Amino acid sequence: MRALYNCSFADPWLKVAEQLNVKYGVEPVYWIGYADDDSDRLVRQAFPAAVYHGYFDAWKGVFPIGFEENSWAHAPEPEEYRCFGEYELQALQLMDRMDFDQHSFSYSARRLLFRKFIRCWTFVIDHYGIDALISPSIPHRSFDFPLYLVCRQKGIKMISFMSTPFLKSGRILALTDLYHIPDRIKLAFQQKQESDATQPLSEDTRGYLSRINQSYDAAKPEIFQEDNRHHKGKPSVFLTGMKFFSEILKKNNSWL
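and the corresponding structure tokens:
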């Protein structure tokens, strides 16, 4: 099985990829990684044959050299774009965060970028024979939401993980489709509804309900708390920004 890892932190996902590769033959062939965790070096070191795609490049719709030119041969036919039509407005709204004054990124430019993503991800999926999309977080960015749509349209397996207010206690939801609640959750909910017994709230649930009625510092989501493991040891915002701008100057990349 050939996998595409989407927005995966080097720690712990590199170890996860190595274990999946050894135990189950899941080969990472494409990796979208972050700029501030040294994943570009670590991924290339662990999987030399994998294509590494930088996070900031992905945001701008900049693909590895030659990808965009070759993608035209894999562009969906006009009628094939219709299957993405119902999701297009949602995809364009996800680009609001790329338009800080809400006047610089027009509707037509967003639509062109969305269709470029559809075309280029179709090429990546076809060219590398991707069988699975592994996404540590729900695809919700301008670039990975179209990636998810292409995989969904092609029937490619996807697993993603949705955080809950109970992250510290290990409660996350593993999802294979963003638009359908997993059957196991539906069944568990139905069984609780049909049961006459009153289920007591767990300790972490009571703690969460207590926190959200306190100050913001106490109620702050765990992903934003200072002790979040992915924020430890990260470079400062200044250093990350410097790396971002150095990449722009070095590559002279455009948005489209």
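(Above: one complete record from the training split.) DSSP finds eleven helices and six strands in the chain.
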